[in-house]
């Protein structure tokens, strides 16, 4: 035997195993950190509307014989905070559902043209309120294997954002195309755009470019995290191209056939 060599091999192997072990520990640590951060973010986000409600209620109670108009005004603010709390909880539930394994996917052959038309029909009333024109362009009829509910959730979030982060009298352009392997959905807007250094963060949970502005228009910072998860579950990808002050385009690419 070449004992030196054997020794060396055993040594290399031990190094490899301990390397792999350390890498795994590192990954677990990252997972644990991000879980802790998520929980602390959730608590913070859920507490904010509660704190506002408490302040509003306390200040009403402190004013003896407050006029009915003041009650009315404060109750409207409280109702708005309740609605916000509700939206955060609903978004969180959507996200948690999507975090489960893809065994929960309900894949069926769907007409993607119809699916998009339906999404736009639901969201047009919001766009009309802000004089925003929503246009749909289909380059071909597309039938694909998708979970209709989850894909709808993803694309609705993108279109909602395109409307929310737009200017009065702006436009939203949704298009559908396909090749032999994938279908492509583009959601382009003429909106405020995303600052260059923020683009890499927008899919993170609770991330918002402008917290106060986003809060004003009812954002939770979870919409894009939900959209990305739903698209990844379909083995798809989502990309973003944006220019501040000019607009944003999200491109979604999903396989026509679901790959388990
Ligand atoms: P929110 O509930 O705040 O809309 P999202 O996760 O959907 O949360 O989006 C995260 C952030 O990314 C938003 O707060 C906004 O700052 C930015 N953003 C998303 N979509 C667009 C868009 N189409 N145009 C400009 N900014 C956008």
From TrEMBL:
What keyword terms does UniProt attach to this protein? Kinase, Membrane, Phosphoprotein, Transferase, Transmembrane, Transmembrane helix, Two-component regulatory system
Please state the Enzyme Commission number of this protein. 2.7.13.3
Native species of this protein?
Faecalimonas umbilicata
Where mainly found? membrane
In this protein, which residues make up the domain named Histidine kinase?
41-258
Write down the chemical reaction(s) this protein catalyses.
ATP + protein L-histidine = ADP + protein N-phospho-L-histidine
Name the top EC class. Answer: transferase
Has keyword GTP-binding?
no
Q: Where in the cell is it found?
A: Membrane
Q: Could you confirm whether the keyword Zinc appears in this record?
A: no
Protein name, UniProt field = histidine kinase
């Amino acid at each position: 035997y070449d004992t030196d060599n054997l020794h060396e091999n055993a040594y290399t192997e031990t190094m490899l195993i301990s390397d792999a072990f350390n890498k795994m520990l590192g990954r677990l640590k990252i997972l644990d950190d991000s879980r802790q951060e998520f929980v602390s973010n959730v608590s913070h986000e859920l507490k904010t509307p509660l704190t506002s409600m408490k302040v509003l209620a306390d200040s009403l109670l402190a004013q003896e014989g407050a006029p009915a108009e003041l009650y009315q005004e404060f109750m409207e603010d409280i109702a708005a905070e309740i609605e916000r709390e509700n939206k955060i909880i609903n978004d969180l539930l959507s996200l948690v559902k999507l975090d489960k394994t893809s065994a929960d996917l309900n894949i069926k052959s769907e007409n993607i043209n119809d699916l998009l038309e339906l999404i736009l029909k639901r969201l047009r009333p919001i766009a009309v309120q802000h004089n925003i024109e929503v246009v749909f362009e289909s380059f071909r009829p597309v039938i694909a294997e998708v979970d209709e509910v989850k894909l709808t959730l993803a694309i609705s979030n993108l279109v909602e954002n395109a409307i929310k982060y737009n200017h009065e009298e702006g436009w939203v352009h949704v298009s559908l195309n396909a090749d032999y392997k994938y279908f492509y959905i583009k959601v382009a807007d003429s909106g405020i755009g995303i600052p260059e250094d923020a683009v890499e963060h927008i899919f993170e949970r609770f991330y918002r470019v402008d917290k106060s502005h986003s809060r004003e228009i009812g954002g939770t910072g979870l919409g894009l995290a939900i959209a990305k998860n739903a698209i990844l579950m379909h083995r798809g990808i989502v990309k973003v191209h944006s220019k501040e002050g000019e607009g944003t385009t999200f491109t979604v690419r999903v396989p026509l056939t679901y790959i388990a």
